[in-house]
Amino acid sequence: MSSLGRASAVIAAGTMVSRVTGLLRSIVLVGVLGSISQAADAFTVANQLPNSVFQLISVGVLTAVIVPQIVKATAKPDGGGAFISKMFTLGVVVLLVCTAIAMIAAPGLVALATSDKQQELRALATALAYWCLPQILFYGIYALLGETLNARRIFGPFTWAPVINNVVSIAGFLALGALFGNVPTRAAAWTPEMTAMLGGTATLGIMLQALVLLVFWRRTGLSLRPDFRWRGAGLGTVGRLAGWTLLMALAGIAAGFFQTSIATTVSGTDASTTVMANAWLVFMLPYSVIVLSIGTPYFTQISEHAAAGRDDEVRADISRSIRTLVFFIIAAIAAVAAAALPASRVFTRSIDETFQAAPVLIAYLIGLLPLTILFIVQRTFYAYDDTRTPFWFTIFQCTLVVGTALLASFLYTADVLPASLLAAAVALGQSIASTAQTLLAIWLLHRKIGGLQIASWMLSIGRFALAAIPAGAAGWGVFLLMGGDDGWTLRSQLFGALGTCIIGIAVVAVYIGILALLRAPELKVAGSMLRRFLPGR
Predict the structure, then answer these.
(1) Which distant-in-sequence residues (6+ apart) come within 8 Å of 190 by Cβ?
(2) What is the pLDDT of residues 443-472, one digit of tens each?
(3) Residue range(s) defining the domain that contains residue 444
(4) Statement to judge: residues 205 and 78 lie in one domain
(5) Cβ atoms of residues 188 and 41 within 8 Å
(6) Nearest Cα to 80, choosing from 184, 235, 214?
(7) What is the spatial distance between Cα 536 and Cα 247, in angstroms, rounded to a whole number?
(8) Which segments cross the bilayer (predicted)?
(9) Which of 234, 246, 433, 502 is 20 to 30 A distant from 62 in Cα terms?
(10) In this structure, is residue 361 part of a structural domain?
(11) The dihedral of CA 527, 528, 530, 531: what is its sign?
């Protein structure tokens, strides 16, 4: 448990810094381009294309397949060095091919992700996509290096590297504003010089994020060199397993494109893709800091126990990790829900935009608890080299995502749903789909290995919810004491950030106090992990 705590602390610290700088990046971008803006939405669409491929590579192949295979390969005499060299060589070749194909297909990809009613937005997004799509190569290299470092229990660099990308992006966005003054929000008013600077800055940041990981490669003790002798290296197993995860990730990307195309219908006038992306960024902050920092070391441990056939230890890992994750995540849900308006104000130019952005954040927040549990459940399937089952419950989720987005579009077209709530309706559909997916995944994992100790999870969740409800109410009370809708927390982005912190502190204090009164056993585990952040630890 001690090693898991140290690893979690390193990952959490790096993730926190990278996410905070990522928030600053988004704040600067909103300051330059706006949030309800055609130009901002065009950049969001273009920059999400390489991100989608990164998810395809990282979540769809590396996390699902490569990490468990590397864990097994470390038992070989060379520590997996030969396998890793072959994997890297093959990976870079595949990345180059994928990047070239994506560049050729850029107009079609943008068309899939935008509404045909927004031709000016589509033209700017296509131009930006040509600058952003080379990120696919660098995202892939970053994922290959980082996931291998994680598998070798070198957890820090992978989570700290994005800080470099964020710093470069912030500098580039500020330079864009300084050089071109009042940057237009209308897509048709953009010049090639503006496009090149915005897209080029985004890609430069990702390139440096990837290359900095090479500095830490020496810690693995492995040599890395080109090796094109792929036959007989065991990559056939990787390919067989990756087939299902690739299909799964492609389904997720297609569903995401469909959601974006629905949301861009109201681009430039109401909350659209940029507002959704910023709300997702806030939503992902607790997920990244809590779930990835604690869950990633657990995943490596689960993979080791599964590879050794120690199913009882796997079940114990699942129960322990979920209870620990849920302890933190429910506190985060209560805090973000109470501070939804000030938190949304951070990423908007005006109070009116804030009231459009907050419902989107709340809609996403509904799915945070299910996604937290899904993180462990889905990766347990991966640890047993089962990628087919996650494919089917992800297809189920994607079907619901598309169905709910279609329903939102229909209600908007029929004038039942206001344009200002279209993005929130799409986000709510995402949360509903994720909840149903998680329930199905738990049932399937229970059938596979049994003994998941679900009763203990539910007891813990109930205890945490019992503390979170009054804690969230206390946070909302603090917001009202600071003036509520007419208070100082909504007057500027800086005040919004400060108000969010105050509300969050109040929620966490009440939450911990109630759990202490209930003598929740998870408090001891949480305290042990948090002490890892103290100086000298």
Answers:
(1) 39, 124, 127, 184
(2) 999 888 877 778 888 888 999 999 999 999
(3) 243-532
(4) yes
(5) no
(6) 235
(7) 46
(8) 20-40, 52-75, 87-112, 124-145, 157-176, 196-217, 238-259, 279-300, 321-343, 355-377, 389-413, 419-445, 457-482, 494-518
(9) 433
(10) yes
(11) positive
Query: What pLDDT digit, counting tens, does each position of 488-512 carry?
Result: 999 999 999 999 999 999 999 999 9
**Do residues 416 and 271 share a domain?**
yes
**Residues 234, 235, 240, 246: is their CA dihedral positive or negative?**
positive
Domain count, the chain: 2
Complete DSSP assignment for 382-428: HHTT--HHHHHHHHHHHHHHHHHHHHHHHHHHTTSS-GGGHHHHHHH
Distance CA 425, CA 222 (A): 49
Alpha-carbon distance of 220 to 148, in angstroms, equals: 9
SS3 of residue 35 by DSSP: coil
Rounded CA gap, 158 and 11, in Å? 8
Q: Which two tokens stand for residue 150?
A: 């994680």
In this structure, the answer to whether residues 199 and 303 fall within a common structural domain is: no
DSSP states along 191-210: -HHHHHHHHHHHHHHHHHHH
Q: Are residues 329 and 368 in the same domain?
A: yes
Both tokens assigned to 33: 């381009």
Same domain, 290 and 338: yes
d(CA 303, CA 387): 14
Return the residue matching tokens 């000030």. Answer: 342
Q: Torsion angle, CA of 307/310/313/314, rounded to 10 degrees?
A: 40
* Alpha carbons 30 and 16: distance in angstroms, whole number: 21
Is the whole model's pTM more than 0.85, yes or no? Answer: no
Give CA angle at 174 (168, 176), nearest 5°. 100
Q: Sign of the C-alpha dihedral, residues 236, 241, 247, 253?
A: negative
Dig out the tokens for 202 from the structure. 């985004």
**476 part of a folded domain:** yes
DSSP 152: T
Per-run averaged pLDDT (10 residues), the chain, 537 residues: 58 74 89 91 93 69 58 64 75 85 93 92 96 92 79 74 92 93 90 95 94 81 72 60 73 90 93 93 84 72 76 82 90 96 93 94 96 90 83 92 96 94 96 96 88 83 93 97 94 93 96 88 69 52
Write down how long the chain is: 537
The verdict on 172 and 295 lying in the same domain is no
Query: Distance between terminal CA atoms of the chain?
Result: 15
Rounded to an integer, what is the distance from CA 283 to the centroid of its chain? 9
Contact (Cβ atoms closer than 8 angstroms) between residue 432 and residue 401: no
**CA 456 to chain CA mean position, Å:** 27
Structure-block tokens of residue 161 = 């590297």
204 and 285 fall within a common domain:
no
Residue at a domain's end among 174, 189, 220: 220
Give the distance, in angstroms, between the CA of residue 288 and the centroid of all CA atoms in the same chain: 7
* Within-domain flag for 235: no
Let me know whether 210 and 249 are in one domain. no
Task: Say how many C-beta atoms besides its own lie within 10 A of residue 108's C-beta.
Answer: 11
